[in-house]
Amino acid sequence: MIASPDRTPLPREFFDRPVLEVAPDLLGRLLVRDTPDGPIVLRLTEVEAYDGQNDPGSHAYRGRTARNEVMFGAPGHVYVYFTYGMWFCMNLVCGAEGRASAVLLRAGEIVEGAELARTRRLSARNDKELAKGPARLATALDVDRSLNGTDACATGDTPLRILHGTPVDSSQVRNGPRTGVSGEGGVHPWRYWVADDPTVSPYRAHVPRRRRS
């Protein structure tokens, strides 16, 4: 008999660690999104680590800005950014306050509330694609900049929280280059995923955007 996932909330201390420890340890954890229409629960299957001002691929590499302010705050908070003029992506801040490291949530399996996620992901061909990629994950969970700064470790009524879930055994964790990251930041093997999980997004190397003539 398979044990049910642990629904205990993850404490702030979980996130108050180096980003390269937190990132693989997030695999198998449960992300709960409470919406006005009901809850959606996602099991994390793919993440990506960004190491702040030590990492050329990080939004915080060049210091604090209005956009990345949350990354410099307390661990366990949600950092949401807007990209390519159309998509939101969701991160979890970790490390000591002022450190500005975070983990991008790249993909997951919707384990509860799939019917709600489907209404937001009409182009998904099946439920395995509902949150297969960071923009798709945010869309499926109805995440936008209004949730930027949310405390995912807060108790009580909160729109986002992280539960203990069922951590993935280290033998099933894989890592490799981050998807779509260019330059010096592209060499780090800081993308982590669950081996052979169908919800994990495909790897894509960075392709420079061409300017319109």
Written overview of the protein:
This protein is mainly beta and 213 residues long. The protein has 4 helices and 9 strands; from the N terminus they run βααβββββααβββ. Strands 1, 2, 3, 4, 5, 6, 7, 8 and 9 form a 9-stranded antiparallel beta sheet that branches. Strand 2 and strand 3 form a beta hairpin. The termini are far apart.
Helix/strand/pairing category: mainly beta
Based on CA inertia axes, which overall geometry fits? Answer: globular
Give the fraction of residues assigned to helices: 10-25%
Distance between the termini: 61 Å
- Main sheet makeup: 9 strands, antiparallel
User: Count of helical segments?
Assistant: 4
Strand content: 25-35%
Element-level helix/strand string: EHHEEEEEHHEEE
Radius of gyration, taken over Cα atoms and rounded to an integer in Å: 16 Å
Extended strand count: 9
**Average pLDDT for all residues:** 92
- The parts where pLDDT drops under 50 for at least 5 residues are none
EC number: 3.2.2.-
Keywords: DNA damage, DNA repair, Glycosidase, Hydrolase
Family: Belongs to the DNA glycosylase MPG family.
Pfam families: Pur_DNA_glyco (PF02245)
Short description:
With 213 residues, the chain is mainly β. The protein is built from 4 helices and 9 strands; from the N terminus they run E-H-H-E-E-E-E-E-H-H-E-E-E. A hairpin with a 6-residue loop joins strand 5 (87-94) and strand 6 (101-112).
List the helices and strands and how they pair.
Elements: E1 6-9, H1 12-15, H2 19-25, E2 30-35, E3 38-50, E4 78-83, E5 87-94, E6 101-112, H3 114-120, H4 134-140, E7 160-165, E8 173-176, E9 191-194
Antiparallel strand pairs: 1-7, 2-3, 2-7, 3-6, 3-9, 4-5, 5-6, 8-9
